[in-house]
Amino acid sequence: MERVRDLASKKAAVIFTKSSCCMCHSIKTLFYELGASPAVHELDKDPQGRDMEQALFGAFGSTQAVPAVFIGGRYVGSAKDIISFHTSDLMDKVMRMSSERGVVIITKSSCCLCYAVQILFRDLRVQPTVHEIDTDPDCREIEKALLRIGCSTAVPAVFVGGKLVGSTNEVMSLHLSGSLVPLIKPYQSLLY
């Protein structure tokens, strides 16, 4: 179980799968369609995979070992849990918010990193749609939803073209590598 916990803590979203598992494939596809980039560990291709599969089986009250999804190092569920969460009204709300305009930032008014990310986009001649969720009655659940879809921290959560880019770390990494400007180019204003 120690290796499972170690691998699960290496990235914001981690999925343990088997290459022959159709539900595993469905969960990976769901994450990719949501714009997340989870780390995927295929147990049948890992020398310690059999031991990890045995550790996962039943460890979290699940009746199956894979797929096992971890967000922020915490187990969040199996295929059934993820699919039922994805179809919830709350997830629909998050996805609607994230696709309203080309660049959407989900923030909290008290978050200085949220403010910094907004300023970065404005300096890059992009006028993002900003949703301050601390005024939303579903604030806590929205934060949980953002963590479940792969944000390393709940806010800021940046979406470009309806796809999750990530939080501050991911946005700054893209900017420093020169990959952010080409990504947001369609949303830049000439008159800004």
UniProtKB/TrEMBL annotation:
It is found in: Cytoplasm. GO terms for cellular component: cytoplasm. Its main location: cytoplasm. The keyword Cytoplasm applies. Keywords: Cytoplasm, Redox-active center. Residues 14-76, 103-165 form the Glutaredoxin domain. InterPro entries: GlrX-like_pln_2, Glutaredoxin, Glutaredoxin_subgr, Thioredoxin-like_sf. It holds the Pfam family Glutaredoxin. Gene3D superfamilies: Glutaredoxin (3.40.30.10). Belongs to the glutaredoxin family. CC-type subfamily. PANTHER family: GLUTAREDOXIN (PTHR10168). This is Glutaredoxin domain-containing protein. It comes from Brassica cretica.
